[in-house]
Amino acid sequence: LRKLANKIINSSTKLLPRWRAVVEANRLKPKNLPRDVKTRWNSNFDMINTGLAYRCAIHEFTLDSSNGLSDFHLSSTKWAILGNLRDILMDATLYFSRDSATLATVIPSMDKLDTMLATAIITKPDGEKSVFTAAVKVALVYAKTTLNRYYAKAADSLIYRNAVCKLSIFCSSDATESDDVSTSP
């Protein structure tokens, strides 16, 4: 989908008008396929979600030999993989897009996500054996690696360090209520 979206958008005189015509013929809302942007954390979800919604248009568009995009035609297996990925990414996207997502909620969520990624490679949350395709399992391993990079970035954050220090002070058994009051600014 990523390469197809780039081909369509970068060919404003040939492919883009044809894409718009196919979308209109399929009675879909006029829209370009979103591109994956490395600096936008949820762009993978947007790209996959739109791709699945426009599946019939993508199918028709890539089968048209005059477009020269037959290499981008997706098999039913690849569509199933995209469906798996969307389901995985949807919960995280919706959770972290809320107004109430703060550092205090994000770090524990990252911990939970880390655990879920580690176990999702083998089992589903309900304990049944995972039915994810091999490609999705590889993507889960890659996601876990990416999450570990976020952990490293969070550990370098001054705000995170201050929060962890204050938490250790508040949670220590030696701290009393009078200590907390006397050390507050």
UniProtKB/TrEMBL annotation:
<dbReference type="InterPro" id="IPR052035">
    <property type="entry name" value="ZnF_BED_domain_contain"/>
</dbReference>
<keyword id="KW-0863">Zinc-finger</keyword>
<dbReference type="GO" id="GO:0005634">
    <property type="term" value="C:nucleus"/>
</dbReference>
<dbReference type="GO" id="GO:0008270">
    <property type="term" value="F:zinc ion binding"/>
</dbReference>
<dbReference type="InterPro" id="IPR012337">
    <property type="entry name" value="RNaseH-like_sf"/>
</dbReference>
<keyword id="KW-0479">Metal-binding</keyword>
<protein>
    <submittedName>
        <fullName>Uncharacterized protein</fullName>
    </submittedName>
</protein>
<keyword id="KW-0539">Nucleus</keyword>
<keyword id="KW-0862">Zinc</keyword>
